[in-house]
Specification:
It is built from four helices and six strands, in the order ααββαββββα. The chain is an alpha+beta fold and 126 residues long. It has a single domain, classed as Nuclear Transport Factor 2, Chain: A, CATH 3.10.450.50. A six-stranded mixed β-sheet has the order 2-1-6-5-4-3. Strand 3 and strand 4 form a beta hairpin. The protein is globular, with a radius of gyration of 14 Å.
């Protein structure tokens, strides 16, 4: 689990830095990404993740996730923290998040992404 733990930390760091290429090297082609509506849906693999990330990097808007806590048990890693919503480099809101990473045979197979205030995030990205 330690390699996966490090990979998950690296993914959040790369997201913060806007290093999408790094994220793509850490994701499997069959990994599922699930995000609550109205923003979300289900996305598969690197191509799906690019579509999902593309929704949050448009028109000067983007998100940045800052980890507060990571906890693992069995085949799950739960990451909680704060998502900053930025428009033209200015933070316009902060939203708590909790993401659940499901691991099988040392691989990330599914990521469930949750945020507390979908209304704020939707206002910026829909």
């Amino acid at each position: 689990m330690s390699n996966v733990w490090k990979s998950i930390q690296d993914i959040y760091l790369a997201l913060e830095q806007g290093n999408i290429g790094k994220i793509m090297t850490l994701i499997e082609e069959d990994t599922l990404f699930m995000l609550d509506k109205p923003l979300g849906g289900t996305y598969r693999g690197r191509e799906g993740l690019l579509l999902l990330i593309g929704r949050f990097y448009q028109g000067g808007s983007r998100v940045s996730k800052h980890i507060v806590q990571m906890v693992s048990q069995d085949d799950r890693v739960m990451v909680s923290g704060c998502t900053e919503v930025l428009v033209n480099g200015e933070v316009i809101g902060e939203v708590p998040f909790a993401d659940v990473w499901i691991v099988e045979d040392g691989r990330i197979v599914e990521v469930q992404l949750y945020c507390l205030d979908t209304a704020l995030v939707s206002k910026c990205f829909l």
